[in-house]
Design brief:
2 domains, Rossmann fold, alpha/beta, globular, three-stranded parallel sheet, six-stranded parallel sheet, binds guanine, single chain
């Protein structure tokens, strides 16, 4: 059976380290602030935003949550971002994705001051990080990388397959692994012989949003599997069950190590958001 990669415990320890650093900033009269903007009523986003606000306060930072109605105009959203860009009590700004259809996500992301872009979605940060500079690294890929390095140590030369090519996870994940000297393949819905590609990978990262798509038979024996998916499956009992993009029961029989869902990548994403906010605060107070 595969070893379990305990993201929940790793994230708790990371949050402890962050809280210690924040306490040192308090002594200098600095309290890092994170502003989170949620537009609309998406149920999953509401849960994420609530957890982000709660954990921000737990590490000693200020949390500013802006919940805006679905009908909010792009102009009003841009005005709020402009206000937060100029607010000295805010060092990090995050606009929860997805946004309603009448709002252009690229325009919104471009409006965030790159120094306050704790998601690492602004083109300036994407560019810096892709060229090996110190641009902010998106939270979910950063969390996956931390778990991988904790599990495997040096990743040099490993054959990595990233399944999914979103701007939030897949693309930055591939870039990060390339920076770690992996041999990286990015696979997606048009990839030919997908199962074969997966079976070649020493490291398999799955971020496609399809419940239990990757089966144990797709996995190379001994591989390290990072499951980014969080899918709610409604059950007959009326209770929802959370599953990943990997079929855990069959994968755990083949993999060397695997992240569970829940308790794997999920908690790492918020911990890395807090880390990015701390880093942004340190840079802005330099
Ligand atoms: N929606 C899903 N994941 C994320 C994330 O990491 N950041 C933001 N802003 N929205 C998301």
């Amino acid at each position: 059976m595969a070893q379990l990669i305990d993201g929940k415990a790793f994230a708790a320890s990371l949050r402890n380290d962050i809280a210690e650093e924040v306490a040192k900033l308090h002594q200098q009269g600095i309290t890092p602030g994170l502003a989170v903007i949620l537009v609309g009523e998406d149920p999953a986003s509401q849960v994420y935003v609530r957890n982000k606000g709660k954990q921000t306060i737990e590490v000693g930072m200020s949390s500013f949550v802006h919940k805006l109605p679905e009908s909010t105009s792009q102009t009003d959203l841009l005005a709020l971002i402009n206000k937060l860009n100029n607010d000295n009590s805010v060092q990090g700004i995050l606009v929860q994705i997805p946004l309603p259809d009448h709002i252009d996500a690229d325009t919104v992301i471009n409006a965030i001051d790159p120094r306050k872009d704790v998601d690492g979605f602004h083109p300036v940060n994407v560019g810096r990080f892709s060229t090996g500079g110190n641009g902010t690294i998106p939270c979910t890929p950063l969390g996956c990388l931390m778990l991988l390095k904790d599990q495997l140590g040096d990743l040099s030369g490993a054959r990595a397959l990233v399944l999914g090519r979103s701007n939030i996870v897949g693309k930055p994940m591939s870039t990060l692994l390339l920076n770690e000297n992996c041999t990286v393949t990015t696979a997606h819905s048009r990839t030919k012989d997908l199962q074969e590609e997966c079976r070649r990978a020493d490291i398999l990262i799955v971020a496609v949003g399809r419940p239990e798509m990757v089966k144990g038979s797709w996995i190379k024996p001994g591989a390290t599997v990072i499951d980014v998916g969080i899918n709610r499956i409604e059950q007959d009992s009326g209770k929802a069950r959370l599953v990943g993009d990997v079929q855990f029961s069959s994968a755990a029989e083949v993999a060397g190590a695997i992240t569970p869902v829940p308790g794997g990548v999920g908690p790492m994403t918020i911990a890395c958001l807090l880390l990015n906010t701390l880093t942004a605060a340190l840079r802005q107070n330099d």
